[in-house]
Amino acid sequence: MAVPDRLPLAIVIVTYSSGKVIEGCLRSLDVALADAGPARVVVVDNASADDTLARVREVAPEAEVVQTGRNAGFAAGVNAGIAAADGCDVLVLNPDIRLAPGSVLLLRQALALPGTGIAAPRLTGEAGELHLSLRRRPTVPRALGEALLGGHRAGRIPALGELVVDPAAYDRPQTADWVSGAAWLISRACLDALDPLDERYFLYSEETEYMLRAGEAGFAVRYEPRAVAVHLGGEQSTSSTLWALSSANRVRMHRERYGRPRGQLMRLAVGLNELVRAVAKGRAGGRRHRAALRQLFALREWPLLPGEAPRPASPARTTGEAASSPGYVCFSAQDWWYHNRAHSDFQLMRSIAAHRKVLVVNSIGMRMPMPGRSTQVLRRVGRKLRSVAMLVRRPLRELPGFYVMSPLPLPFYGSPLARRVNALLVRAQVLAVSRALGLRRPVIMVTIPTAWDVVRPMRRRALVFNRSDRHSSFPESDRPTIEALERGLLERSDHVIYVSNALMGEERGVTGERAHFLDHGVDTDHFRRRPESEQPADLRAIPGPRVGFFGALDDYLVDFDLLERLAVELPDVSLVLIGDATVPMERLTRHPNVHWLGFRPYERIPAYGSGFDVAIMPWLDNPWIRHSNPIKLKEYLALGLPVVSTDFQELANYADRVRIAADGGLFVDAVRATLRDGGLQPAEAVRKSVLGASWASRAAQLMALAELSPGPR
Fold first, then answer.
1. Which residues, at least 6 apart from 669, have a Cβ–Cβ distance to it below 8 Å?
2. Rounded CA gap, 633 and 617, in Å?
């Protein structure tokens, strides 16, 4: 048997307290890969509480380990593994799979057949008994057929059963609508063509949804019976929680694919199935079916994530009034049209817009720019007026449910009367647009505290305060006024989400159990290192070595004295600065080794960053920075860059990857050492350390919080 002329292979195994089974899975790879050539093994661990990782390192020390840092769910784990295996075909395995000799080569040959995007093996039990793994497309008639006839009887009639039950069907190669996701090989072409697995399901139905999407995109799912995998399995059949989750996710998937009316029909059909089984098996045997019925009766939008306590449901929610998917209105602290779009509120809302309608309200400011108090006054007023002139737009073709508006504000927050007038003015504009978009009772997320006057009386599903910074520490703000607005949001929001543990701890007395840490994510597909041929010409024209920074060059964030010291003390190093500046830059650009390239679009930032030899975060030591968690840190790491930074609390978790300097002299020394010796870890290891931190997973956490709030207001 010849090895197909294909891309490299990576084997992705997602673990969660899998110490009892992972060793057997890894040992089976030795014979399974016979004649198939080498493969990368990527183990993605969802915060195992046992000895899983110790066993991985003992049995397969060459395996690459990606730690998500939490029980992120199967889909999030697979996505992290796929991200770590850029450029490879990917074989996804459950940790309780044992691959038979030569099975990988057989799967690769099946994947090489024209039109194939996914290949799957024959599944058996430990004694060799066949596991029924072929499935037909889920439909309401098939769910009803299974409820009334039973899964095996209904499976004999294709129109009435989802499960393929004929043993003879498992002896021949064929295409399927979908197959059990215990073991499946995905081509790189299929991975590149489709969006990642949907992480909202947490567990069950994510592989179904992905394979159905693959088929609709022209990538066949091919079953190869000569490739065999032993599947230990069995946990779902004994766990009421997992059984209930599987049933509920069948309904969620149908709702997402075909809309709420058909989703409700599927809910009735699946509920009938569980009811029949619960009655037939009696009190002792029907426990898992009763658990499924309870979950289907009070079906949440998406599964509750581990560690999240459910909120009590209001009468409206239990009767279904509030069960529809809410839209989102986000009052951003930035402006889409002229700020860096990597900011957390933009990233979260873009991810949510893949599933919900979203309206982003551009920053309404914290104070009117004034001569003598603000820098570049005319420029700042002018760009805001140009933003207002954009009115309401859909800026992203791939996200038709993502809208951006710029209301006209009157940011005179020092006067109580002016504040009331401004709130009325902005609220009227936002409500008019929201109604036009059908956002009657949205989830409202507030990042900028001056929005509190606007949103206080607005009807909403929930109010989330995105406490990304302490805005009252902003130098140009009217501190007493902004502190009062922050206090109102802290006291009255349904949830307060933080990216700074320090700030969350300081305000715990006000927020109590409503406080949640939601770390920043990173778009690892976007922030990947580009080869030199793809780096911008203006960057390639700058001699190396290059010490670089990308982001806003704001005078309340960046230590410009430190930048100048770096330029003076390292004259043979090129200092590359990319970003808009709020201060005159002549003091830096007068040095021949300083290259300020100005603002560059978000789409081009990774190409510029790829040309850095060292990435820097030269922050000031002030309350704003002490409570910060810069998004650019994960972006630097996703690019595999060595990083040197001034110190702040959130860096404690990155001390193994970032050189941290307590003062200017140590900062220069750290840059010099990094240029000489390289980073603290290899580039590949640095990138892998953030692969589990997708914005999609962060958005899923936010949605789970916001949509489980007590009820409409």
1. 661
2. 8
| Rounded CA separation 79/700 (Å) | 14
Cα–Cα distances (Å) from 514 to 443, 494, 706, in that order, read 16, 7, 11
Residue 24 to residues 31, 42, 66, 129, 512, Cα–Cα distance (Å): 12, 16, 20, 19, 45
Amino acid at 236: Q
Could you give the CA distance from residue 495 to residue 709 in angstroms, rounded to a whole number? 8
Separation between Cα atoms, residue 165 and residue 167, nearest integer Å: 6
- Partners of residue 360 on adjacent β-strands: 330, 404
CA distances, 343 to each of 222, 362, 520, 556, 581 (Å)? 41, 12, 9, 17, 17
Question: In which band, very low, low, confident or very high, does the pLDDT at 602 lie, cut at 50, 70 and 90?
Answer: confident
Candidates 56, 28, 52; CA nearest to 42 is 56
Question: What is the rounded CA–CA span in Å between residue 658 and residue 97?
Answer: 37
Tens digits of per-residue pLDDT, 281-293? 776 677 888 888 8
Q: What is the 3-state secondary structure (H, E, C) of 152-163?
A: HHHHCCCCCCCE
Q: What is the pLDDT of residue 701?
A: 79
- How many other C-beta atoms are found inside a 10 Å radius of the C-beta of residue 560? 17
Could you tell me the two tokens for 280?
Answer: 């037939």
- Compute the chain's Rg from CA coordinates: 27
Give dist(CA 540, CA 607) in Å, integer: 11
Q: Can you tell me which residue has the tokens 């090989």?
A: 185
Please say whether the beta carbons of 692 and 68 come within 8 A.
yes
Local confidence band at 411 (pLDDT 50, 70, 90 cut-offs): low
Characterize 306-325 residue by residue with b for buried, 16 or more Cβ atoms within 10 angstroms of its Cβ, and e for exposed.
eeeeebebeeebeeeebbeb
* Residue 398 to residues 18, 196, 401, 439, 628, Cα–Cα distance (Å): 38, 15, 9, 20, 31
What secondary structure does DSSP assign to 372-413, as a single string?
A: TTSSSHHHHHHHHHHHHTT-EE---TT-TTEEEE-------T
| Cα–Cα distance, 93 to 106 (Å, whole number) | 16
SS3 call for 331: strand
pLDDT tens-digit series, residues 93-113: 999 999 999 999 999 999 999
Q: Tokens 């009070």: give the residue.
A: 298
Q: What is the mean pLDDT of residues 491-498?
A: 91
Does residue 575 contact residue 593 with C-beta atoms inside 8 Å? yes
Crossing angle (nearest 10°) for helices 260-285 and 287-297: 150
CA-closest candidate to residue 507, choices 461, 476, 474, 469? 469
Provide the pLDDT for residue 241.
82
Token duo for residue 401: 């449910």
Distance between CA atoms of 188 and 174, rounded to whole angstroms? 21
Spatial separation of the C-alpha atoms in residues 665 and 676, rounded to whole Å: 17
